Amino acid sequence: MEQRAETSISKFKAWRNWCEENKKSKFFVRKEALVDKIWYTRQERLLKQVFDALKYSAVNEKYERTKAELDKDVPIRLELEQKKETLIKVGKTRDKHHCLR
């Protein structure tokens, strides 16, 4: 009788240990899957950030080039506008002189 009790107790302990090990292994498998998912999400976000940074860099570079060209052309444009205004004034004064003659 004692032998049967001991064997049933040992079987119960073995079954309980097997259940606990099984729970632990399932727990760690789920955690590994979660970590893998987080890793892939982080990689995707990192790639998106890198792509956005490259895109911003390209747009910013175009903006800086355009701004530099405009800064170069604006003084020339202002000078030409001043020359045009002086020519118009000179033309008006000539017209007045011609009218008086």
Key words describing this protein structure:
101 residues, single chain, rod-shaped, mainly alpha, 98% helix, 0% strand
Q: What does the model show?
A:
This protein is 98% helix and 0% strand. It has 101 residues and is an all-alpha fold. It has one domain (1-101). The model has no long low-confidence stretch (mean pLDDT 90).
Computed over alpha carbons, the radius of gyration is 43 Å
Residue share in β-strands: under 5%
- What is the N-to-C succession of helices and strands? H
**Overall pLDDT level:** 90
List the helices and strands and how they pair.
Layout: H1 2-100
Short description:
With 101 residues, the protein is mainly α. Helix content is 98%, strand content 0%.
